[in-house]
Amino acid sequence: MSFIGTLGEKPWIPQDPGVAVIDNEQQKFNMGRTALKFFLAVVSILFFLFIITFISRTQYPDFQALAGEPWQPLTNPVALWINTAVLLAASFALQWTKIQANKGQVNGLVTGLIAAAFFTLLFLIGQVYVWQQLTELGYFFNSNPANSYFYLFTSIHGLHILGGLFSLSYIAIRFVKDGSIAKLSTGISLCTMYWHFLFLIWIALFALLTSSSETFNTIALLCGF
Questions:
Q1: DSSP structure class, residue 59
Q2: For residue 3, is it within any domain?
Q3: pLDDT tens-digit profile of 76-86?
Q4: Which domain holds residue 63?
């Protein structure tokens, strides 16, 4: 609040309770957004460090990329493309839910929440399916450094998405208990930001994990490895 605005306040005049609730929710949203941005910054640094170590590891002779040659499992990553589309759908569903919450449309809001949760769970199931495919082909965790990083990246990313699902479930439970769209709107906005961030992280990981050895060598050269 500005200094001029503070001078213009009239505390002896009763305030509208509805306005007070909106201001309170706006303060909670601002605090939550600041905390979320800090958390996302920490997560970004975490993934950045993992990616740097991954690029460095690609320069060792025992590293065999999972894509590039026709027989490599991620040369044609159809399942991963499908998972990417599903995660994008979850992100769009949350964005639509946010719009419905701002409009006060309860039916659209509930539909969007269900769709976002469904697509997110479908993405996690799809990632597990890719794991099963790799293990059936003999690409185990310890058999190749590229395998290890694939399981590491996807599991850490999946855990962050799972954490987001728990937060989304908590918000939905609170809405069922008190029915406050204003409170739900605050949480939905933060979850939407989180889902968009995780989608961007996944795009970076997807591009990296499906790169060929030649691409890794070029990236490593640019990074000074």
A1: T
A2: no
A3: 999 999 999 99
A4: 18-223
